Amino acid sequence: MTKTLMNRIVLTAALAIAYVGVPLLLGGNAYVLGLIVAALTIAGVAVAWALLGNLGGMVSFGHAAFFGVGSYTSAVLAMKLGVPVFAAMLLGGVGAAVSSIAMLPALRLRGPYFALAILAYAHIFQILATEMTAVTGGAGGLLSIPRFPTLLGFEFGEKLGGYLIVLTIVVLAAFAYDAIRRSTWGLALKAMHDTEVATRVVGVPSTHLKAAMLVLSAFITGVVGAFNAHFISFLDPDYAFSSGWTVLPIAAAIFGGYRTVWGPVVGALAIYLVDQLLFKPILPHGHQMILGVLLCAMILFSPGGLMPALRRRPVKENRHAHA
Amino acid sequence: MLTLEGVQVNFGGVQALKSASFSVAEGESIGLVGPNGAGKTTLFNVISGVVRPTAGRLDFRGTSLLKLPEWKRARLGIGRSFQIPRPFGHCTVRENLLVAQRFGAGKKDPKRIDEILDILNLRDKADRDATTELALTEHKALEVGKALATEPSLLLLDEVLAGLETSSKRAFMERLAAVRDRYRLAMVIIEHDIATIAALCPRVLVLNFGQIIADGSPDAVFRDPEVIRSYTGETTLAEAS
After folding, report:
1. Cβ of A82: how many Cβ atoms within 10 Å?
2. Do A320 and B48 touch (CB under 8 A)?
């Protein structure tokens, strides 16, 4: 059996479990389903972060900004202009993508300078959300944000509906990531990592490609943020722009393997669910310390993350497969 | 096809190019020589867009290059190699060529990629990791291959023969000549080996302290007393300033 065929079988089985198995087995368990939705929300941002980090070669500490802008854009459009929730959610992604245009000048920077610049941008958006009281409700935030509607008799506003929506967002984001990674664009982005000038002299518009990755990553993060706003039905600037929306996805992506397409998803599910279901009951105050130790251990013993470790292929020997 | 007029490059207080003026005709092969630090690579960087000149005019087939970024110049038909090979990280040899072809030439033509692999003797290395699994000669060949994949009409080769053993150098020269003849390219080659330059290029430019001090046939240029002086280091302080 070829590796590609094996991968397809595993992916199909995982999708079948996610779309059929989980609703059948856990549909009635609102607590666990709620945790899975939260894990998938982190997974969505983690995929977007990994797309920018792995393909664009940029380490972002500012994804909370896209998450926050997406959630506020969608919530405001639905509440004040009556835009249908699903359309508002997509427009939330568009809002985040537009906000990322303000960050394009940071693309001239590399490494820690880019990371710091984008972190500063994130703070600017948080301040704007706090100060623009008339639109965003200021520090008090927005209450009673419209939930997802009932369509064809299915209640998307309930936990199971939310699960299916965020699952679909994450799956589509991962497919988009994979499609780009396999394209000539993906190849050029990979080529740019070590020697950007060498790619430019063969005709690669490197800054344009990086900008495209930033905008796409912001769009995905914005859609996830918008989903979250309508799922929990509440927003305030401290929550929507919380650094947790940056730190947890980064931890998830690194834990799962940010150089693989499904690593960030597996990482988010693993660290969030293990933390909430195993560590938290044992150590209610300080359970995240165990998570920190686990992350350190993963970085030390399998720098490529969980996915390469599961495949039992050391990172150095697997360079061709990496994007 | 390429015209430079009074091109000047300053790096802070250092004048890397003082006033370079020359032109390259279609299909012409030119050797660019000069002592270390003369400004040869800076000149290539200016033509390919890696460095913006402080002053001067730079036209390629009637289009001013001054405001064009590197990638647009590549798409206009200017290909270049780097003195220190810069293969694309974690890509195979074939993938290196595919990226260059897709973006530089704007097409996907596997036959042409195979042709380049054959002519540069890289066919059996096509699926190897270009960063870690190539010998120096192959790295140098890949540099030429990437430039060729963009389908250039002008090829700038920066010391592609440097560091090669005599036998490898001879074989590489033959490949370069084959490339030039097959694709009818204009070439400018930076090279320190006078015999190599004389064999490949009917015209030689000599650069010293950022200025072109000689332009002519290899025979005439390498007998020029000023050129000999520049190589033997008998340059006065006044000339250097």
Report:
1. 9
2. no
Number of domains in chain A: 1
Residue of A nearest to B149 (CA): A202
Number of domains present in the structure of chain B = 1
Q: How far apart are CA B94 and CA B92, in angstroms?
A: 5
Is A249 contained in some domain?
Answer: no
Largest CA distance in chain B: 55
Q: Answer yes or no: is A206 within a domain.
A: yes
Nearest to B80 among A191, A201, A320 (CB): A201
Chain A with chain B: Cβ pairs closer than 8 A: 94
Which residues form the domain of A213?
A: 28-244
Report how far residue A46's alpha carbon sits from residue A249's, in angstroms, rounded to the nearest whole number: 4
Domain ranges, residue B106: 2-240
Is residue A303 situated within a structural domain?
no
* pTM for this predicted structure: 0.86
Distances (CA, A) of A143 to A132, A133, A192, B169: 16, 13, 45, 74
Kindly determine whether residue A205 and residue B104, on different chains, have CB atoms separated by under 8 Å: no
At B19, is the secondary structure helix, strand, or coil? Answer: strand
Q: Flag if A204 and B150 touch (Cβ within 8 Å).
A: no
CATH code of the domain containing B109: 3.40.50.300
In angstroms, the separation between the Cα of residue B102 and the nearest Cα of chain A is: 7
Q: What residue ranges in B193-239 does DSSP mark as E strands?
A: 203-208, 211-216
- Inter-chain CB proximity A203 and B80 less than 8 Å: no
How far is the alpha carbon of A202 from chain B, nearest alpha carbon, in Å? 5
Tens digit of each residue's pLDDT, chain B (241 residues): 999 999 999 988 888 999 899 999 999 999 999 888 889 999 999 999 999 999 999 999 999 999 999 999 999 999 999 999 999 988 899 999 999 999 999 999 999 999 999 999 999 999 999 888 899 999 999 999 999 999 999 999 999 888 888 888 888 888 899 998 889 999 999 988 888 888 889 999 999 888 999 999 998 888 888 888 877 766 544 554 4
Per the structure block, which two tokens stand in for A102? 């303000």
In a domain, A279, yes or no: no
